[in-house]
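Quick one, probably user error.
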């Protein structure tokens, strides 16, 4: 049920929609296609970036920001390149048209800057009518019930896609304009307080994470006893290792397997940086239709999973139970001669992730593009 006001409401009425069952009686539920116009963004690549250039919002920026509103662009491009991009204006919403999963497809943000700004490719741009207050629109598009609609409209197995025709079908609640402004103001104050608390915690976590990474790097590359004699590993990114250690190519310790689901009925697993492989329902409220999981990769307990697009962030895990993972992941059997948890730590070191990044191939740069570490290069 969506109440949405800042005080208790009466007069809630059924909507007839499975996404928002009841609304205040003076609200309406309307498709985006009836609330404004869409156009497709176009643009070049990171080679156009210039520190003192013109503001630009790229596909990857939506994922880095992951907020309802875009106030400060993360990217700037050379002024000579702006003719190759699409102009965007304050109050317009941007949607990412592709993603790694149904759960995060179509991330959006509303532009709240008066600075001349441009959008890159793989984005849809929505120009709302005057019935929508921009800040409210940003919050409405980021609500869970909107994410649920996007996930049901997405298509694809390896990379999930949305198109403008699908985006036009998304419904959002429309209060009167004055009420939209009041809701946006209330949420703005609430977000500011919460964001301040989060920032303080993140600074502390960053310091602790740095200490942890230093300890991990020292232990997995030099051992616990730092007084042991060392030798050159013969591997540029690894450097010196204890004298009694040996090195092997990863392909002799890990064997890629590719077994697909025929029904999609096995539990869907989500790969998370801290938690590892967990059931999808533990981290998302967005339901997944088994039909959309047909041909997803099956993983067995004891197998290693690598997110090929985020290997350079050390995103690996070992499965503890049977389930399904994205077809764009690599699944591997592990040699009985090695300890999996040791390598999960090794693959998160800066030296290893730097090597993974160097060996990744594809379009774009870093996590902003579609760079992948394929098993041949990993091996």
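Nope, works fine. Designed sequence:
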């Amino acid at each position: 049920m969506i109440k949405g006001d800042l005080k208790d409401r009466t007069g809630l009425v059924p909507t007839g929609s499975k996404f928002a069952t009841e609304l205040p009686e003076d609200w309406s539920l309307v498709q985006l296609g009836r609330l404004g116009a869409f156009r497709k963004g176009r643009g070049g690549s990171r080679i156009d970036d210039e520190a003192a250039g013109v503001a630009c919002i790229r596909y990857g920026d939506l994922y880095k920001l992951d907020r309802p509103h875009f106030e400060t662009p993360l990217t700037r491009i050379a002024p000579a390149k702006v003719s190759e991009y699409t102009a965007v204006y304050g109050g317009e919403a941007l949607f990412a048209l592709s993603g790694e999963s149904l759960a995060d497809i179509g991330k959006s943000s509303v532009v709240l800057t008066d600075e001349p700004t441009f959008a890159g490719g793989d984005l849809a741009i929505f120009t709302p009518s005057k019935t929508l207050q921009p800040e409210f629109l940003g919050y409405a598009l980021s609500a869970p019930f909107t994410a649920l609609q996007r996930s049901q409209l997405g298509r694809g197995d390896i990379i999930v896609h949305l198109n403008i025709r699908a985006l036009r079908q998304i419904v959002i609640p429309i209060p009167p304009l004055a009420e939209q402004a009041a809701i946006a103001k209330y949420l703005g104050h609430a977000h500011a307080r919460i964001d301040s608390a989060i920032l303080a915690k993140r600074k502390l976590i960053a310091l602790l994470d740095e200490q942890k990474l230093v300890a991990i790097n020292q232990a997995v590359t030099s051992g616990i006893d730092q007084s042991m004699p060392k030798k050159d590993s013969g591997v540029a990114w690894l450097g010196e290792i204890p004298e009694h250690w040996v090195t092997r190519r990863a392909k002799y310790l890990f064997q890629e397997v590719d077994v697909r689901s025929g029904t999609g009925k096995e539990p869907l697993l989500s790969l998370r940086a801290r938690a590892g492989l967990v059931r999808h329902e533990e981290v998302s409220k967005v339901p997944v239709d088994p039909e959309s999981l047909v041909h997803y990769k099956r993983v067995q307990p004891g197998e290693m999973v690598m997110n090929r697009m985020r290997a350079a962030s050390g995103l690996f895990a070992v499965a503890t139970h049977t389930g399904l993972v994205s077809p764009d992941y690599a699944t591997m059997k592990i040699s009985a001669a090695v300890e999996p948890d040791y390598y999960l730590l090794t693959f998160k070191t800066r030296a290893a992730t730097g090597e993974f990044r160097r060996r990744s191939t594809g379009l774009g740069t870093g996590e902003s593009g579609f760079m992948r570490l394929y098993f041949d290069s990993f091996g």
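The first helix runs from residue 59 to 65.
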